[in-house]
């Protein structure tokens, strides 16, 4: 994927909750599987692709949540912990953007799905963090309201253009319930920090969201312009 393709994918991606019956083409499955293998090797996550498995989002006449017609999804499995959660967000969103460049639609799902035991395997100490619905949407979804970047930034130095582009990309990212509870700090000298803006108790989506927005920021800003401090 080129940076241009990824930037375009960031602009066109929206959460899609209704899917058609159209199956995924073999060559698209192949690129997704290759990307999953690379992501797992790099991150230590245990991401898997469930194909032709309709039960996670429905059982008979029952539907789980507002999501329908899903037969394919990424299973975002891995060990526990905040650092793992951030990786789930980061590597999951890379897959979301790859899917978008392939003409597929997605939706991150934290709650409204059922774990179907024969659709994935877990090693000792692993859990399913989230799934990401995947397929051909009935439509492409719609843009969430875009908020001004100033609300999400603290800076010790004037903001360079690459930082602003990074923020624009971050604000287009999916977050759980569109909560966007993050801020980016610019320290000057190409040093950037990103962190959640609310404190945590128990199960939370803040670190998945953080990984997701950091993925977008890197693409928008260009990785050569900065380092995570
Ligand atoms: C970690 C995470 C969990 C999510 N869980 C759900 C979910 O359980 N059900 C759902 O319908 N949408 C879920 N979403 C989708 C968000 O509601 C959606 O991304 C957000 O409203 C922003 O809209 P957009 O993706 O179209 O930009 C989740 C998103 C993230 C990042």
Summarize the structure.
This protein has 229 residues and is an alpha+beta fold. The protein is built from 5 helices and 10 strands; from the N terminus they run ααββββαβββαββαβ.
Cofactors, ions, other ligands: flavin mononucleotide
| Mean pLDDT, all residues | 95
Helix content: 25-40%
> How can the largest sheet be summarized?
4 strands, antiparallel
Q: Which residue ranges are poorly predicted, with pLDDT under 50 across at least 5 consecutive positions?
A: none
Summed up, the helix count is 5
CATH architecture annotation of the largest domain: 3-Layer(aba) Sandwich
Quick one: CATH class of the largest domain? Alpha Beta
Structural class category: alpha+beta
Taking Cα atoms only, what radius of gyration do you get, to the nearest Å? 17 Å
Number of domain modules:
2
Percentage of residues in strands? 15-25%
Overall 3D form:
globular
What fold name goes in the CATH topology slot of the largest domain? Answer: NADH Oxidase
Q: How many strands in all?
A: 10
CATH homologous superfamily grouping of the largest domain: NADH Oxidase
Instruction: Give the helices and strands as they follow along the chain.
Output: HHEEEEHEEEHEEHE
If strands are numbered along the chain, what order do they take across the biggest sheet? 1-4-6-5
Give the terminus-to-terminus CA distance: 26 Å
């Amino acid at each position: 994927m080129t940076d241009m393709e990824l930037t375009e994918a960031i602009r066109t991606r929206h959460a899609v909750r209704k899917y058609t019956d159209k199956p995924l083409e073999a060559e698209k499955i192949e690129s997704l599987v290759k990307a999953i293998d690379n992501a797992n090797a790099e991150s230590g996550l245990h991401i898997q692709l469930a194909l032709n498995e309709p039960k996670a989002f429905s059982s008979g006449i029952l539907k789980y949540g507002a999501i329908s017609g899903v037969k394919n999804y990424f299973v975002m499995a891995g060990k526990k912990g905040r650092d793992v959660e951030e990786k789930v967000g980061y590597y999951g969103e890379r897959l979301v953007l790859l899917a978008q460049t392939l003409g597929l639609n997605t939706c991150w799902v934290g709650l409204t799905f059922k774990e179907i035991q024969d659709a994935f395997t877990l090693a000792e100490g692993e859990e399913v963090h989230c799934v990401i619905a995947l397929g051909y949407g009935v439509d492409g979804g719609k843009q969430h309201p875009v908020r001004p970047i100033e609300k999400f930034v603290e800076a010790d130095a004037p903001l360079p253009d690459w930082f602003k582009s990074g923020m624009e990309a971050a604000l287009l990212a999916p977050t759980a319930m569109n909560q966007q509870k993050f801020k980016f700090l610019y320290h000057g000298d190409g040093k950037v920090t990103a962190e959640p803006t609310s404190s945590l108790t128990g199960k939370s989506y803040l670190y998945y969201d953080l990984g997701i927005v950091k993925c977008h920021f890197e693409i928008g800003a260009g990785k050569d312009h900065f380092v995570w401090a």
